[in-house]
């Protein structure tokens, strides 16, 4: 005889199956209730904190924007002040330079006035356009440097204008000779030296004497719109004064 085949089905009483299904439903319902309660509790406790965090974040952002705006304003103000300080320094430097120039001009004018006062003192005779002094000094290379002072004390408000030339007279090859302005400057049709002054003016320059020429005197001529002057100076006297 063969052994009986076990059955795949199990016969469970009806009331037991119902009880098992009810227990499963209760467990599922309890899980849902637990999850809901957890979610509610989390929402109830976390929502106020989240709202506070959002408010704090918004306030921090507003504070950052305010600080950035103030920082930008301070930077702009600093740039404006730096530029203003630079302009002030430049203006002050220009003023100081202008004052230094004025001081130099005043000192020069005071020196001129002192010289003029000595020139036209109470005992001095007032004169029109004249050659006050002519000085010559030798230089390296065979040239002569001259300094000729022109003055006028007759009319203090007048301006004397014109051109100055001079001729050096002396001896050359045993004969009297005169070296003219053009030859002295080694230039054909050399222009005269211009002058324009109210009280006095010093004219400077260089000339060349020809070889073998012995100077004896200098004849200075002034040609202006309202005056023509010619004065002669002894060469020894002129060179002695120029060699001081």
> What best-fitting shape do the alpha-carbon axes yield?
rod-shaped
Quaternary organisation: single chain
- Radius of gyration, whole Å: 57 Å
Regions with little confidence, pLDDT below 50 for 5+ residues? none
The structural class is alpha+beta
Intertermini distance: 168 Å
- Which whole number gives the mean pLDDT? 82
Report the portion of residues in β strands. Answer: 25-35%
Helix and strand string, N-terminal first?
A: HEEEEHEEEEH
Work out the helix count.
3
Largest sheet: 5 strands, antiparallel
Counting DSSP E segments of at least 2 residues, the number of strands comes to 8
**Helical content class:** 40-55%
SSE map:
Elements: H1 14-119, E1 130-138, E2 143-151, E3 160-172, E4 175-179, H2 181-184, E5 193-197, E6 200-208, E7 213-224, E8 228-234, H3 235-242
Antiparallel strand pairs: 1-2, 2-6, 3-4, 3-5, 3-7, 7-8
